[in-house]
Amino acid sequence: MARGRAADFESTREEMLAAAAQLFARNGYPGTSMNEVAVACQVSKPSLYHYFKDKHELLVQICEGHLQTLSSLVDDVLAQDLAPEPRLRALIQGFVREYGESQYQHRVLTEDVKFLNDEDRTRLRQVERRVVAAFADAVAAVRPELAGARLEKPLTMLLFGMINWTFTWLRPDGELSYEDVAPMVADLFFGGLGAVRTSSDNALLQETAQ
């Protein structure tokens, strides 16, 4: 009789993926061995192979898991049926906050996706395109004339250029958190530098609204 999975199989697997993502983010995918992942997970190497057949599968699952989280975030925002501007703001701020929660996974997706095989990379690119399309549609909903000029996609890519690389400069122990930066990105995209509010400005607005 085949042995069934342990009750904590999925939670253990997720913990291993998180540990591997941290190692890949810090040392790079090529510079990380399965032995190092096993040590970080505090399991034997054979135990690690019980959950993942090889290092490539680890990379696939890290990238796919992060993209599916982002795709679900898009679905959650769209399900709220918000007006155009609040919808785009919710998407922007939701993504910035999620990047803060998944810094290692996001770095791996950004820097190590090139090490995936063609089949897996193509499949994940399809999820990425769906996410980008949702943002482009949101941009066009705010400024419908942009769609006629075919500018909604370039503007969306400029927006992602602003938020995708936040991890390269925003320190986890710094003065600003991802929660602080999220509304700044939205304000900057909508209104330029003059629209960015400080934390004291936001506090004043909240007091006025009460």
Question: Would you write up a description of this structure?
Answer:
The structure is a single chain. The model has no long low-confidence stretch (mean pLDDT 90). It is globular, with a radius of gyration of 20 Å. The protein has helices at 9-27, 34-41, 45-51, 55-79, 84-101, 103-112, 118-142, 144-148, 152-164, 178-191, 199-209. It has 210 residues and is an all-alpha fold. The chain has a single domain (63-209), classed as Tetracycline Repressor, domain 2. The longest helix is centred in the first third of the chain and has 25 residues, at 55-79.
In short:
With 210 residues, this protein is mainly alpha-helical. It has helices at 9-27, 34-41, 45-51, 55-79, 84-101, 103-112, 118-142, 144-148, 152-164, 178-191, 199-209.
List keywords for this structure.
mainly alpha, Tetracycline Repressor, domain 2, 210 residues, single chain
